[in-house]
Amino acid sequence: MSVESTNPNDLLKVVSLLGAAVVIVPLFKRLGLGSVLGYLIAGLIIGPFGLKWFVDSQSIMHVAELGVVMFLFLIGLEMRPTHLWSMRKNIFGLGSVQFLVCATMLTSIGSIAGFPWQVSFICGIGFVLTSTAIVMQLLGERGDLALPQGQKIVSILLFEDLLIAPLLILVTLMSPIGESSSSETLIPILIAVGSLATLVVAGMWLLNPLFRLLALAKAREVFTAAALLVVLGSALLMQESGLSMAMGAFLAGVLLAESSFRHQIEADIEPFRGILLGLFFMSVGMSLDLAVVFDNSALILFGVPAMMATKSTCVYFVARFMGSKNSEALDRMTVMSQGGEFAFVLFTAATANKVIDSSVNANMTAIVVLSMALTPVVVLLMKFFGPKSEISKEGVEDANGLSGSVLVIGFGRFGQILCQLLLARNTDVTIIDADVDMIRSAGKFGFKVYFGDGTRLDVLRTSGAATARAIAVCIDDKVKAKHIVELIKSEFPQAKILVRSYDRTHARDLIKMGVDFQIRETFESALKFGEATLRELGVTDEEVIEISDDIRRRDHERFELDLAADTQGYTAGRHLMFGNAVKPTPFVEPKRVSKSLNSDAGDTISS
């Protein structure tokens, strides 16, 4: 029996895909351009219109779409049914308004430009439906998926996914090839509804018992296979019923969101999701037909900014009309300015039904792909050159005309504990912080905290630094803390300066700047933690105190050596530390003796 050998070219293609991603994506992230644009450019370089390492980008995209499917499944796992139900107003309210406004404007512009209304409608609808993959990836990289503004965008994307089946039916009705009977139109709708009902029933009654049985079997690989089966099976069911694969996977995730196996399923799916989603972005880059772009450069180069600008404007005004802040509306219009992957399906179906011709299909596909590629760039440009988000100070007072014996800068965990001691002694304390959310939260617990940036001299003046007897700098930013100390030493010499230091290096710098007191933020708490550990091991209280005092003494001596020996830095007193590196020495009775470390001190001994 002969075994057919693997085609070396197939392995070469896999290596080229991975190599392009490994080289280009980290470079783009390093430049601040994001991973999505890196994947798109990598696909363009190695695709049929670049180095021609791949000639059939569509076959790769069919496989890569599974990355989008798995991404939506993981998003669904984070959304319990009750949470999804709470989003219904945004899904059907905000989603429908944005879709109708964008579709109307884009269709109208196409008609005004002289295109038939059918062509204008199909092209406009294809561009209205946003790229779920790109938007979700951008939101995920920024950590905005769970935030209110991120949830609104997710709601709009879900509504657009629900429209896929009705739009495909609408394309069939617009076809000049032949008329469809009402029964032929009704059957796909019934199939879609029935498939949704089947998925919901199976999710509620079958999925949890299935995973419970597999967990009892203790076969990890079978559990992973079952997770993939659920994702791909749900996607296939929705695809065969005329709905979105992503919608099927999302619903499956929602149905498993309250399962006790949710975290294990998520861990099993995550590696596949990351690789396939990156492959999807690369396949989008490969599908950009540069020959079509060059042959129709005037139309495409005008169409891309025109359609992106029109859609962005509509998204912005809808967001403002529905009550979003200006900064949120600007962010939404930037993130959702592109066409989506469903446009390719819609254009193909419209071409098959003779609603649009192949040239329109090719041009619009190029416009959509370019819009997807440009979205990360537009987001980056908006970040640097757009208006900065405004901090809402509702319910927060600025530091102005204040006075007090002690000025506390920073009301985080450290500052809160400090203030407890001062307030217990009825000390006249003024507290400022630059985090409005922290200020509002503190107000609920009976604290009066004023809004103010301690790195600004004018804020220090209005906060009462000129009359304060002591100023306590409790922020956790080393650079800002040193800047504040410089201002205080220069402008408010009457005040004692007490500073929360980050590590030994920061503490040494502060002492050289002339602060009256500094303390490393973790030193005393770590000592207390060590004392408790020794007690749990059965060490007597007397010995615990003796050891703790010895460590404090050694640390103090080491710190004095650090200050006196700048050439060695914080390694100067390393002989005073207890180390656990094994040394080839004769056996002796264990004593608490000082051991020299075999290597230079690193970050772990600079705390």
Descriptive labels:
elongated; disordered C terminus; mainly alpha; disordered N terminus; six-stranded parallel beta sheet; 26 helices; 607 residues; 65% helix; 6 strands
Describe the structure.
The chain is mostly helical. The protein has 26 helices and six strands. It has helices at residues 8-30, 35-46, 57-77, 81-86, 88-112, 117-128, 132-142, 148-162, 164-174, 182-205, 207-217, 220-240, 245-255, 262-286, 290-295, 297-321, 326-335, 342-352, 358-385, 413-424, 436-444, 457-462, 478-491, 504-513, 523-536, 541-564, and strands at residues 406-409, 429-433, 450-451, 470-473, 496-501, 517-520. Helix 2 (35-46) runs antiparallel to helix 19.
Structural class: mainly alpha
Query: Judging from the principal axes of the Cα atoms, what is the shape?
Result: elongated
CA distance, first residue to last residue? 66 Å
* Percent in helix: 55-70%
> Any idea what the radius of gyration is?
31 Å
Strand content range: under 5%
Main pleated sheet: 6 strands, parallel
Give me the number of helical elements: 26
Order of the strands making up the biggest sheet: 3-2-1-4-5-6
Stretches with pLDDT under 50, minimum 5 residues: 1-6, 590-605
Task: Tell how many strands the DSSP assignment holds.
Answer: 6
**Mean pLDDT across all residues, rounded?**
79
In brief, what are we looking at here?
65% of the residues lie in helices and 4% in strands. The protein is mainly alpha-helical. Helix 23 (478-491) links the parallel strand 4 and strand 5 (496-501).
Topology:
Blueprint: H1 8-30, H2 35-46, H3 57-77, H4 81-86, H5 88-112, H6 117-128, H7 132-142, H8 148-162, H9 164-174, H10 182-205, H11 207-217, H12 220-240, H13 245-255, H14 262-286, H15 290-295, H16 297-321, H17 326-335, H18 342-352, H19 358-385, E1 406-409, H20 413-424, E2 429-433, H21 436-444, E3 450-451, H22 457-462, E4 470-473, H23 478-491, E5 496-501, H24 504-513, E6 517-520, H25 523-536, H26 541-564
Parallel strand pairs: 1-2, 1-4, 2-3, 4-5, 5-6
Helix pairs in contact: 1-2, 2-14, 2-19, 3-13, 3-14, 5-6, 5-8, 5-16, 6-18, 7-8, 9-10, 9-18, 10-13, 11-12, 12-13, 16-17, 16-19, 18-19, 23-24, 25-26
